[in-house]
Every structure is written in C-alpha cells, then in structure tokens.
Amino acid sequence: MTSAPHDFLLPGGANITALPKVSLHDHLDGGLRPQTIIELAESIGLDLPETDGAALGEWFAEKSDSGSLVEYLKTFDITTGVMQTEEGLIRVAREFVQDLGADGVIWGEIRWAPEQHLGNGLTLDQTVEAVQAGIEEGIDDVRNAGGRIRIGQLVTAMRHADRGLEIAELAVRHRGNGVVGFDIAGAEAGFPAGNLREAFDYLARNFFPTTVHAGEADGLESIRGALFDGRALRLGHGVRLAEDITVDREDDENTYVELGRLSQWVKDREIALELSPSSNLQTGAIEQWGDDLIDHPFDLLYQLGFRVTVNTDNRLMSRTSLSRELALLAETFDYDLSDLEVFQLNAAAASFLPLEDREELVDLITDGFERA
User: Fold this and answer.
1) Which of 115, 129, 188, 216 is catalytic?
2) Total number of domains constituting the chain
3) 341 has catalytic annotation
C-alpha cells in the first residue's frame, strides 16, 4: 500500500507534490517505511529500538540529527539488516518506487550498495536482480494507479571496502537490466576516490557514467578526486564546493564574488550538484556557514549559475520527500514556480538517461509546470 502523499503548496497555490519531478540522489536503504522495517525485522528475528511505526520513525530522525555523517550512517545498520533476503529487497524496492510515484517523481535514480546485502547468502547478481524485480513491480503499481514513472539503479561501491572493481563490473554487467550508473559512498574523509582508480578506469573504458559522493564530509580535495580520479559527471552533494568561492560584502549594496579554479571548472562544465538540504544540515556538511537552512550555500550556488539539483538523500532519516525539500527551499529563499522548474530541468539534463530520453523528460517537466 502506497504511503499517503502530503501536499506542499506554493504561496500562489501551485501544488508542489503534483508537479513532475526528477530524483537523482535517493538511497534505497534510506527510504524504507518504518512499518515495513518492523514487519521485516519480525520475520527475521531482528531486534529494534521501537516496535511502533511512528515511534520508530521518530527514532531514526533523532539519531540522524547528530551533526555527524559517521553517526548518521550508523542508523543504516537497521535498514540494511532487513534487506538481506530476496523478499526483503523486492518489497523495499517496490514500496520505494510507489512512494516516489506518490510524490510526483517521473524519473528516479535509486542508489544502493549490493555488497551490503550479502549476509543471508545472496550473490551480488541476485541482489541486483531482486531490486530490479521490486522496481518493476513498483512501476506497474504506479502506472495502474494512473501515474507515470521510470526508474534506474545506481550501483554503489563502499569507498572504505576493497571491492570497487568487482562492483564496477557488476554495474556494467547489469546495464541492460536497469542499472544506469555507478557511485561510491560511505565514509568520505580518509577514503579518496583515487583509492578506487582501477574501478573508475574500467568504467571509463566501458563508457559507463559515474556520480561520486564528494564535498559532504570532506572538502575540496575530495571533490577534485571525484572529478579527476572518478571522472564524475555529477557530484553527490558537492555542497562544500562553496569553500572555493570567495564572497566579499563591502556594504549592503555591493557584493563581490570570486570563483576558484575548481568551482569555476564545475560551473563551466555544468557538472550537476546533487544537493540535499535537510540531510546536509543533519550531517554537519554546512556547519562552517551555519546550522539553519538559510545558511545553506544552495542559493549562492544557484544565483551564480551552477547546475544545482534538489534531492532527499535519505527520506526516512530526514523525514522528508522531494516535494518537502522543494517547499522548504521555496519558503527559505523565496523561490517561485519558475525556480522550482529550473531545478527539475537541471536534474533532467544531468540524469543518466540517453539524450533522447532526457529531451522527452524536459518536455514532460515543462508541460507539467505550464499546467500548474
């Protein structure tokens, strides 16, 4: 059963939830329904801190709101714990797609790390096949309910492990079975993209697109590594790219901005930033600028012409949705419908779809916003 969507409205009355949207940065193991966790945990004998759905949802949000990425990631021990069987993976993926469809997403890229789902004897290939089966069931559910959605998998390697090439080969092996791209995730500081250079070389030889978590828990060197070792076409978060931008406010009327070579490169190449506002607050990614949404460099990057996109990262941990993130940004920075459309067009342009499909996606977004 699909979670009931919450309608978020702009001041002019436009329903953000009903608008066609693109989701690029959304973790499968960060988007489970609390009640599903409870039911799956009971079937495998996994102890939980709470056995009521609402209470469990509150527990995840509280534990995730620590200001530390390392602490934030600990909550995933529970979600990955209930995703070790074929049945668990299928159900979670199916419901994930249902919830995206209910939120107005028409193209979603779901990232997840197959190597974290082998505890019950599944092979890497079996995990990908199970997730794809759930995705296809979810797509059918959305379509049968009158909606429209397409989904691609982003197969992720854990940057602290030593399986990068193996996971890259897995991703390429399933490029005809729903996998559209590759990612690395996990503890960022101390584990640069260069450690997985062999995997990225393999992906480049096979013309397979990559996005890399960078500029979240580490700074500019991590972003450089993502771009030049990882050949990243997008930056997962990338919010700390703002460290390479100098803002000099001489007075209330005159502000001067200077981009460093790295930020200028990212801007000129139109490399998309997969920004996740609520998550960035929770993990402390923007702590050098402040601890409220108004302090987030999102608007600075947008006004300077970077290809900013809006994402949820982990909907369970942040108690959020793509519509909610857009509503929060609109309220904080006084964005209107045209701004939200730009964010969706940016995401469509940066998606790991063939050019013709991206053009079709742009048309769907434009038509949907015109009718709003």
Assistant:
1) 216
2) 1
3) no
